[in-house]
Amino acid sequence: QVQLVESGGGLVQAGGSLRLSCAASGRTFSISNYAMGWFRQAPGKEREFVAAISRTGGSTRHADSVKGRFSISRDNAKNAVYLQMNSLKPEDTAVYYCAADSFATGTPRDQYEYDYWGRGTQVTVSS
Fewer CB near the last or first residue (10 Å), C or N of the chain? Predict the structure, then answer.
């Protein structure tokens, strides 16, 4: 089975930066078979789309709320995907989840398109 493990979360002041990492592994696993995405869920709110990247990294998509501040990238040689977060705001506080979609041809934003999920990493932005 595919396993995803997030890291890089923590506490940061508003205006600061963090980089989240997602390490993927599994039986005969090749990350190039998967579109990858980041989602987040704040307390009392529904899980929402943050960013996605196509299987080869040729296309990306970012939610309007993070566009220009966050950037998703991937390194297939390292079986990893990243989320660089700059100019962080208190409203970015959430648990951030890495996800993999084995059937995507593009950059899906619907969480139900994704097949595998990590356990999440907490990002807290203080004001």
Answer: N
Angstrom distance (rounded) from CA 2 to CA 109:
20
Would you state the torsion angle of the CA atoms of residues 110, 112, 113, 114, taken in this order, to the nearest 10 degrees?
110
pLDDT of residue 26: 87
Question: Rounded to whole angstroms, how far apart are CA atoms 77 and 48?
Answer: 28
pLDDT digits (tens, 9 = 90+) for 30-47: 888 999 999 999 999 999
- Please tell me the predicted confidence (pLDDT) of residue 98: 98
How many angstroms separate the CA atoms of 62 and 123, rounded? 18
Residue bearing tokens 């807290």: 124
Q: Tokens for 98?
A: 């890495």
Contact 109, 49 (CB under 8 A): yes
The secondary element (H helix, E strand) that includes residue 99 is strand 94-101
